[in-house]
Every structure is written in C-alpha cells, then in structure tokens.
Automatic annotation (TrEMBL), chains A, B:
The keyword Cell division does not apply. Residues 23-42 bind DNA. It comes from the Bacteria. GO terms for molecular function: DNA-binding transcription factor activity; transcription cis-regulatory region binding. This is TetR/AcrR family transcriptional regulator. PROSITE patterns: HTH_TETR_2 (PS50977). It comes from Brevibacillus brevis. Coiled coil: none annotated. Residues 1-60 form the HTH tetR-type domain. InterPro entries: Homeodomain-like_sf, HTH-type_TetR-like_transc_reg, HTH_TetR, KstR2_TetR_C, Tet_transcr_reg_TetR-rel_C_sf. It holds the Pfam family TetR_N. Keywords: DNA-binding, Transcription, Transcription regulation. The keyword Transcription regulation applies.
DNA sequence: AGCAACCAATCGATCGATCGATCGACAAAA
DNA sequence: TTTTGTCGATCGATCGATCGATTGGTTGCT
C-alpha cells in the first residue's frame, strides 16, 4: 500500500535527519511518489510525525500495561519493564528515535496529547518503584529521580543498538535488567537480585505487540 | 560584545527549537542585529553549532581529566564523574542539550571531530569502570554497556532539570552518584558504598570550568 | 452486456513564503 | 586612510502546500 510506504519513508527520514531537516520532497522521493500524492494521504507534514509518535507510544503503553497485569512482584515488573523498553527501542529503533527526539517539533493540542501519553508511561514506572519500596525489596532515595534515570538509561539503547553489534539484543536486554535491579538495589533475603533469579515467563518479549516499523518489517 | 550576544542567541534557539528549525533571521532577531551582521562574525550557520559543541565538549573533557588527576580510587572517580556530568548538564542545560541532540546536523570534518571528542570522553568512563573491576570494587557484567547506561542516565538531567524544581542541584548530583555506585555495585568490605562514604573534596564542582553558557551567565 | 457516473489515486505545474548567504554602501573607530 | 562593524536590498534555491487535470477501477442503471 502506498500509504504504508509513505509512513515508512517518513519514519526513516525523520529518524535519520530529523523532522525539520526532512522536506516533503525528501519523503516523496523516498516513498517513490510525487509530493502531491503525499497530500492525498495526509493534511500536513506534522500529521505524519504525530501518527508515528502516537503509534509508538500507545503500543509501548499497552504492552507495559499487559506486563503489569501478568506479573505481581515489583522486581519482576521492573525487570520486565526494562526488557520491554529496551527491546522495543532496539527492534523499532527508528520509531523510538523519533518519539524521543522530535517532541519539540510538535505544536498545539498534539503536543499536549503526546506529553500526556509519555507521563502516563512514566507513572507506571513510578508505581513499580513505589511498590518495591513499600515491600522493602528496593532501596531508593528518591523515586522520581530513579524513574528518570532508569528511563533515560533504557531509552539510550535506541541511539547505539545495532543487530550487527558485539552484543545480541537478548544479552543487552538481560544486562540492562540486571543494571536496573542493581540501581534500585533489589534484594530478597539480603541478596542482590539478578534477572536470572526471577524466573520471568520465557521471552518477556512475548507481550510485545509489534510497533509500526517492526510490523512493516514482518510482512515485507 | 556583539559576538557573544550572537552566540548566546544561537545557543538559546538551538536548544529550544533545534538547529534545523532555527533560521538565520531567528538568531539575528534574538541577538538584536540584522542577519547581515551575523555573517560578519561567522561563515555559516553550522559554524555556530560547531563552536557551541566544541566549547561544551572540550570543557567537559578538561574538567574530567582534572578529576582523574585529583582522585585515585575508582569509586571516587566514578562519583566525581557523575557529579561533574550532572552538574555541567544542569548548570549549562542549553549547551548540553545542543551537544546531545544536534550531532546529526553536523557534516564533513567537524562531524568526525566532534565524534572523536565524545568517544574520548566515553573512554575515560570506560577506564574508571575497568579500574574498579580490576580492584574488585565494582561488579559489572559488561563494561561497555554499563558506560552507555551511566552516560545516558546522567545526560538525561539536561532534559528535565530546573532550578525551580523540587530537588536542588546538589541533591540531584549526590543522588545520581549514589545510583551510579549502586548500578556498578560498588563495595568495600562487602558493604554497598554511597557518596557519603567517599569523602570527596568539598564541592566536586570545584574543578568545573564554566561552560560557554554558564560563563555568560556570570558576568552578565 | 454496455454505458454513464462516480471516486480514489496520482501527477505536473505552481503558489507565496522563507531559506542561507552575498553584496555594496555607509558610518564610526583607529 | 584604513579597519571594523552594521545595514538594506537582494540573490537563487527550496520550503510546505494547493490546484486542476488525468487515470483506472468500481458501482449502478438500462
């Protein structure tokens, strides 16, 4: 479908050059249509950006909520959240980069709406940490700062991950879970917990619905 | 001086709207000169960006090297690095944001040069973690991944810090040091280390040379 | 079956606005 | 008189967006 082709082209270019540096004609060229054709599928260039960001954030949010519904222990939730976030940001690097770096290009209502999605997601992390604190399994001085640190550290994966890199996605995902558990000093019986102590359901990735970009990669 | 005024204007706008979204005329307006005058002080718009990024990265790098010269123990070095990085990114938020988000706008030689500065800085972190591993004071599965995680988590401060926020810069800086020490599981005598165990020289900020933006803020 | 009416899809041409950058003129300072 | 700083005017290129025309497939009426 042409529409999908246009969205994929925009996604690639927004991620590589940034929203402002990408022209309508760039997208048209990449999608192998004329710039006029673009306007048959969208109203403005910003609409493309909004669609990408909404899709990415909503999918992440849905997956996160499913994780919370499946797992109870805060240390399990945290590890699964890290795996979900890291894996999402690696598999669909392009969408993740756009979501994380092009927020300032948004204007008006959509800006507020996207900000709301993001803070809703942050709140889920906040609750996990609070839960872990109440159960005495985490040791955290400041929950809000810890959430910001954890999120930022996991989000960074999108900036450097490559399937050809020295570490597999699974290694990275597990390693980041361990670092997160260490950061909050997750302990049971006075022993520092690692992800291998938690027996999470096989691939935590099981929950993951494909993102926009990942979906296109499947049925190509 | 007019030149300084121009650089400050560019810094503010690049940080707020991004390099590509900022026009020459925007900068001229903000600096209260005409766009022609800009070209008396620079050759291209990209030169402004390069100057900002070089200044920021080089100052950070110099300060980091001084920290390494003053402190020996890896846990001290790590805590001081975190404080330096966090404090830099909070005090001179604008420069930090530009350095961290506008790399892709660079072209040609400068792109390579800036990338070299950045990787040189990363290497210092790498050495600290390796040192801590060799002394058995850190527990880290994968040093490179840990460096990326730590850097990303500290860099994120520039995105949300505000002097009017609920936490003082000192609180944030100390808190992030503790989280970093926890992430690498820094231990002496089997006891998890915190920043208060390390008796660092009074303000670790002592080493900090002012950045471009911070400097202008001083003699204003 | 055949024709008319419709509609989604695509195009080339082009709009006014703005882009980064240049030029020569003019004024103040050295 | 030369140098340094500043300006208005303007360059060609490109920007996001719009327009009417054309195509090809689908529907509905006879």
């Amino acid at each position: 479908m042409t529409k999908e082709k246009i969205f994929q082209a925009a996604l690639r270019l927004f991620a590589r050059k940034g929203f402002e540096a990408t022209s309508i004609r760039d997208i048209a060229l990449e999608a192998e249509v004329t710039s006029s054709t673009l306007y048959h599928y969208m109203k403005t260039k910003e609409d493309l950006l909004v669609a990408i960001m909404q899709e990415g954030l909503q999918t992440l949010l849905e997956n996160a909520k499913e994780v919370l519904a499946e797992l109870e222990a805060p240390e399990q939730q945290l590890a699964a959240f890290v795996q979900l976030h890291v894996t999402s940001h690696a598999i669909d690097k392009l969408t993740a980069l756009v979501v994380d770096t092009e927020f300032r290009a948004l204007t008006g209502n959509t800006r507020v709406e996207i900000a709301r999605l993001r803070s809703e997601y942050e709140l889920l992390w906040q609750r996990i940490l609070t839960g872990g604190l109440e159960q005495g399994v985490f040791t955290i001085e400041n929950t809000k700062l810890a959430v910001l640190a954890l999120l930022q550290m996991c989000t960074g994966v999108a900036h450097w991950y490559s399937p050809d890199g020295p570490n597999s996605l699974e290694e990275i995902s597990l390693n980041f879970s361990d670092m997160a558990l260490a950061l909050v000093q997750a302990k049971r019986n006075g022993q520092q917990l690692t992800v291998s102590d938690l027996d999470l359901p096989e691939p935590a990735r099981f929950f993951m619905k494909p993102w926009l970009g990942a979906a296109a990669h499947e049925h190509s």
